[in-house]
Amino acid sequence: MVGYGIQSMLKDGHKHLSGLDEAVLKNIGAGRELSAITRTSLGPNGMNKMVINHLDKLFITNDAATIVNELEVQHPAAKLLVLAARAQQEEIGDGANLTISFAGELLEKAEELIRMGLHPSEIIIGYTKAINKTLEILDDLVEKGSENMDVRNREEVVLRMKSAVASKQFGQEDVLCPLVADACIQVCPKNPANFNVDNVRVAKLVGGGLHNSSVVRGMVLKNDAVGSIKKVEKVKVAVFAGGVDTSATETKGTVLIHSAEQLENYAKTEEAKVEELIKSVADSGAKVIVSGAAVGDMALHFCERYKLMVLKVSSKFELRRFCRTTGAIALLKLSRPNVDELGYADSVSVEEIGGARVTVVKNEEGGNSVATVVLRGSTDSILDDLERAVDDGVNTYKSMCRDSRIIPGAAATEIELAKRLKEFSLKETGIMQVGSVCYCKIW
């Protein structure tokens, strides 16, 4: 049976909501529900949430961005708030919870106005006027002289970073902030505006406590060296993205062998070819070979013979960061690298930290663009939450590099905004006054 009206245009199983009670207020209700979930996690004393995602992975955190990403929100109106929080996280790196909580309050006040008889478009106009006025007021509240901050001043950086880190790890900010500040200052380019948050890495090692954490000027790989050579200093590095092994031909072929002598000669030919390739790498001056794929047994044998240290980095992202740390260029196949394709490292050593063997690549004298914060903690959940706190600190440093202006904290700015917005709203006439008053009540 063919339906009438909108039913004839949509497929079976659709839902069509219209009108004030059906559509608008239900959407507002969904946004308020999501806001209520995250609001209790706002601030340094916010409660942790226990979230289990579709892969049965457990998250224990008060980070709103992580919570809403793992909740898999389906309601379209609530999903808009999730997208807003995600955009805030990607752009600024913090403030996702405030985004959702503030949006929930705006929706709650909007619901009151709708029930009073105002049209949604009128409420939007009132809110927009209040937002524009807020931006004007914020420029007046900026601390004088804060725009001239030196982003390489460690004490000033730690001071500004504390509030962001404390919102995730209250009581641990005095330990975490100096670590993050050191890592950020080490990799800060000549033009601070070009600071890249990806240059500050985090290595999480279970065991010990936060006081055992440290900063490495270089990279920390969470795996052991492949061969028997575990430590080298002031070396050139060759990186091969395609692996260190005999290269397979693109076409299949058959080799007919009539005698044992022919078999032996065939094996010797292959062996000689591998030795020739490894020897050519050693002759180029490289002392460390980094493989992005498998390392063959025969190739490893000749690497040991020519005193070459072998590392395996399976992740292409980590391989890219390794190249950035050492200044090397990743080659697609095993061959003799040119001088300008080799990287440099002050030291490459295998160390044992908390029972785990890791490879530490330091590049302090040669200059580098990657620093690693080595975090220690008793469980994976604690380490994950510490990593989020470090991420907030690094993003705060990025914001300082772009715009170092600051405003008073401890809710002083919000109270002043509410006061000035109320004065502004009383000057408005008619319906717009109601929307502006509601906006300032939220502050």
How would you describe this structure to a colleague?
GO terms for molecular function: ATP binding; ATP hydrolysis activity; ATP-dependent protein folding chaperone; unfolded protein binding. Belongs to the TCP-1 chaperonin family. It comes from Triticum turgidum subsp. durum. Keywords: ATP-binding, Chaperone, Cytoplasm, Nucleotide-binding. This is CCT-theta. This protein is α/β, with parallel strands linked by helices and 443 residues long. The chain folds into 3 domains: 15-143 and 408-442, GROEL, domain 1 (Orthogonal Bundle); 152-217 and 368-406, 2-Layer Sandwich (GROEL, domain 2); 224-346, 3-Layer(bba) Sandwich (GroEL), CATH 3.50.7.10. 47% of the residues lie in helices and 15% in strands. The chain is built from 13 helices and 11 strands. It has helices spanning 19-39, 64-71, 76-91, 96-116, 120-140, 154-166, 173-187, 260-283, 297-305, 316-326, 380-402, 412-427, 431-442; strands at residues 49-52, 58-61, 200-206, 214-216, 218-221, 231-240, 286-291, 309-312, 343-353, 356-362, 371-377. It has a 6-stranded mixed β-sheet with strand order 5-10-9-6-7-8, with helices on both faces. A 3-stranded mixed β-sheet has the order 3-11-4, with helices on one face. The chain has a two-stranded antiparallel sheet with strand order 1-2. Helix 1 packs antiparallel against helix 4 and helix 3 packs antiparallel against helix 4. The longest helix is centred in the middle third of the chain and has 24 residues, at 260-283. The chain is elongated. It starts with 18 loop residues before the first helix and ends with a helix. The mean pLDDT is 80.
